[in-house]
């Protein structure tokens, strides 16, 4: 099984929203992961877009047993390995390259690769991928675009990410080819900066209700 869906599927099916996190300060990682898990969102994606990201992943993996930490914005094989070694339990990429797919093949940690077009999706199906990130969701055509892929490309499931918030998440979640959505709205930068963890727990709990 190329994609290791046995590891990936429980993560994606476990909650309607995967928080996409930009962590500037390593010290924020553990309280943030705890706050999101307390609200019902244990799986989180820490993007490798800051210098603190790998240490943040390591801290959450070591100190927050209730969390399921993943790494996002993985662009190449080196980052894949670093993120996996730091304790990531899943890897998310905005798109794929042959080197990235090779890194995924030789790793124990599953990849959720990004794709938009029918051709990109078909190429990933040939590689054995059935669960994809649809990125950037709103900008690329939104829920209407994604819905139109559900019949011709039946069997491929998506986690749309990019431009999704509490107002439009439900539209995506109601599509037959959506398993969950990704978004940064549950952990706004200002609340993280101010350490308002209780408010983040409330946003997470509100997001969990989207599933009902
Ligand atoms: O870096 C990545 O891998 C990304 O996924 C890019 C964006 O951070 C997400 O798409 C979240 O987007 P917003 O919820 O619109 O803030």
Automatic annotation (TrEMBL):
Pfam families reported for this sequence: Aldolase (PF01081)
Pathway terms, separated by semicolons: Carbohydrate acid metabolism; 2-dehydro-3-deoxy-D-gluconate degradation; D-glyceraldehyde 3-phosphate and pyruvate from 2-dehydro-3-deoxy-D-gluconate: step 2/2
EC id: 4.1.2.14
Example GO molecular function: 2-dehydro-3-deoxy-phosphogluconate aldolase activity
Top-level lineage group: Bacteria
Keywords, in A-Z order: Carbohydrate metabolism, Lyase, Schiff base
Catalytic function, reaction form: 2-dehydro-3-deoxy-6-phospho-D-gluconate = D-glyceraldehyde 3-phosphate + pyruvate
Family to which the UniProt record says this protein belongs: Belongs to the KHG/KDPG aldolase family.
Quaternary structure and partners: Homotrimer.
Protein name per UniProt: 2-dehydro-3-deoxy-phosphogluconate aldolase
Organism: Phyllobacterium ifriqiyense
